[in-house]
Design a protein that fits this description.
Number of domains: 5
CATH class of the largest domain: Alpha Beta
Radius of gyration: 30 Å
Largest sheet: 7 strands, mixed
Structural class: alpha/beta
CATH topology of the largest domain: Nucleotidyltransferase, domain 5
Shape: globular
Strand content: 5-15%
Number of strands: 15
CATH architecture of the largest domain: 2-Layer Sandwich
Distance between the termini: 55 Å
Helix content: 40-55%
């Protein structure tokens, strides 16, 4: 479904499109507020036909992730939970944290929705089990033990003769610990401790005793919620009294509750829970996320197409089912109680409301654009635009603008004014708030240029709401004394230091700064690399442009052989041979980079 501007606002699937679409436009239908708002904006509907329900599910997921329609259920942060990874292919594995599952033989444990909890567990495991801590590159080049070895937290296999079988047993203990089989691990360690004491190996017995005590203290803080040791996720959807649906997710690993997470789906009703949950699960369990063998749902899907997709991603069977037995029903009640708190944690809407009130905006700023200018001593002037919608980045909407008219001036005000004209020319979607990195001067330059550009273009819309954010006296990004200005106000807006609203504006400003700086550096590198090619005999601007158009990167150009170079239009075999010789000579004379 598309709005009047042609932007996709909803993606859905159905076995019978006629029945599904007629339900939206039936006068007697009792729609919720979200559906009513959606129907009011529909201007055009496109159809894509597939042969199976499984294909429809995969296509729906792909389109939602690509276009992020406003009225679809899309994950708030689109960020995978943390997992622990043990590289079993290494002779001396180490424990690391990751958000991606790669089928390379490694063992994964988790997930942890809280990064703080994951780091605390990693620290505890490092204290109990002295696995190596350094990365592979450091491990291969180290010449003496590190500080962790002196603290007794690493066996230093990088330089010391560590028995591989002993290290393998240590890795197996870590796997038991992270898999929730800590009690069997304690029994095994106690048995080894007694054997070491009986053989008068008191130092080893003392180390094993310390490990047992540390694990037992950890077990005291864990609660076993199931009598079996299966991994499962429990997901409940409930109707919220205020607005929409709340979702509660419990992560149970090895019979123990490890983590929990909530989501808020505003504008939906419980009758839509099954369809919304199916769309949610297809996004939540991506190809690189850990998928348990059983997912317990309050509203299981009516067909098995989703389970089939998740089983393919998991590489094994995945059951989607309603709770069975008293233990799973108790967990479902816990997840439902958690889901009822989801609206209290929906920070994006809270921040938008706070910004609406503090900045005196006509409505909550759901779409925020931020612009920043970057140049190097007046050269390579660029404007970078980042976009946030509903509190989250939309990187596919980022834009970089080259401003050749501002070259050599070093005038940020003039550059912003030129960018404002370009922004109006690009048209909708318009932001609810345009944030400028700078003070009152930068704000005035943009607002004046926007007003003039809109007047010249006869834009039939209200003026764009603007604000600027300037660094404090220390000029350090992220300082809490950053000041926010609005047009027509002499003094900064009263945003409390450390408040969620100010922290969010700082986050948006910092994203714009990183984006435009990165684009500027990339352009500088490309210019320097192009200059390196132009310095070669027989190579001019036209040839450089043809080479970049054909190969894309300087690395590909340098790696190309004569036959590949001769395939460039207009180059020819003889010129390709000369260019290849010149590139070889350039590589031979290049100085090694200092380390």
């Amino acid at each position: 479904m598309k709005d009047a501007s042609g932007r996709i606002i909803y993606v859905g699937k159905a076995i019978s499109l006629r029945k599904r679409l007629s339900s939206y436009f039936r006068a007697s239908a009792d729609h919720g507020p979200k559906t009513r708002a959606l129907v009011a904006k529909i201007s055009h509907i496109d159809f894509l036909l597939v042969s199976t329900e499984k294909e429809a599910l995969l296509l729906e997921e792909s389109l939602i992730k690509q276009h992020r329609p406003r009225y679809n259920i899309v994950l708030r942060d689109d960020k995978r939970s943390l997992l622990f990874r043990l590289d079993k292919a290494s002779d001396f594995p180490r424990l690391t944290m990751t958000r991606n599952v790669v089928r390379d033989g490694s063992a994964y444990f988790g997930p942890f929705a809280s990064a703080t909890a994951a780091r605390a567990t990693q620290k505890l495991a490092g204290l109990i089990f002295p696995l190596r801590k350094c990365a592979d590159r450091v491990f291969r080049n180290r010449v003496r033990p590190c500080l962790y070895h002196q603290l007794g937290q690493c066996l230093a296999p990088c330089v010391l003769p560590v028995d591989r079988e002993s290290y393998r047993q240590l890795v197996a203990q870590v796997e038991q610990f992270l898999s929730g089989r800590s009690r069997s691990l304690v029994r095994s360690l106690r048995r080894r401790m007694d054997e070491a004491a009986h053989d008068l190996r008191y130092e080893q017995a003392a180390l094993l005793r310390d490990q047992v005590r540390a694990i037992e203290s950890t077990l005291e803080t864990q609660a076993s919620v199931l009598r079996d040791t299966l991994d499962r996720d429990v997901i409940a959807v409930v109707q919220l009294a205020e607005d929409g649906l709340g979702v509660g997710v419990l992560f149970v690993r090895g019979g123990k509750l490890l983590e929990q997470k909530t989501y808020h789906w505003p504008g939906l009703r419980i009758a839509e829970a099954t369809d919304a949950l199916e769309s949610f699960l297809a996004q939540f369990y991506g190809a690189q996320r850990y998928i348990p063998g059983r997912v317990v749902l309050s509203h299981p899907p009516e067909t098995g197409s989703l389970a089939e997709v998740l089983a393919e991603r998991r590489g094994g069977q995945c059951r989607l089912a309603a709770p069975r037995g008293p233990d799973e029903r108790r967990l479902m009640d816990m997840a439902a109680n958690l889901a009822r708190t989801a609206h209290r944690k929906d920070g994006a809407q809270d921040v938008a409301s706070a910004l609406e009130q503090a900045l005196d905006l006509p409505g909550p700023p759901l779409r925020i654009e931020c612009v920043d200018i970057s140049h190097l001593s007046g050269h390579g002037v660029r404007a970078g635009l980042v976009v946030f919608e509903n509190g989250e980045e939309r990187k596919e909407a980022y834009r970089a603008y080259a401003l050749p008219a501002a070259e050599g001036t070093g005038d940020d005000y003039a550059a912003l004014a030129q960018w404002a004209q370009r922004r109006v020319d690009s048209g909708p979607p318009w932001p609810d708030l345009l944030l400028i990195d700078g003070g009152r001067g930068q704000l005035a330059a943009v607002t004046t240029a926007l007003a003039q550009a809109q007047h010249d273009a006869a834009q039939e819309r209200a003026s764009i709401e603007c604000a600027s954010i300037a660094k404090g006296p220390s000029r350090r990004a992220g300082e809490l004394e950053d000041r926010v200005f609005r047009p027509g106000r002499r003094n900064p807006v009263a945003l409390k230091p450390g408040s969620p609203a100010l922290l969010f504006l700082q986050r948006v400003r910092d994203a714009a700064h990183r984006f435009v700086i990165g684009r500027g550096r990339a352009a500088t590198r490309k210019r320097s690399l192009a200059g390196e090619l132009i310095s070669l005999p027989g190579v001019g601007q036209k040839t450089v442009r043809q080479l970049f158009d054909h190969f894309g990167t300087i690395a590909a150009i340098k790696a190309a052989d004569v036959s590949a170079l001769s395939a460039v239009p207009g180059l020819g075999l003889k010129r390709a041979e000369k260019l290849r010789q010149a590139l070889d000579a350039l590589a031979a004379t290049a100085k090694p980079r200092a380390t």
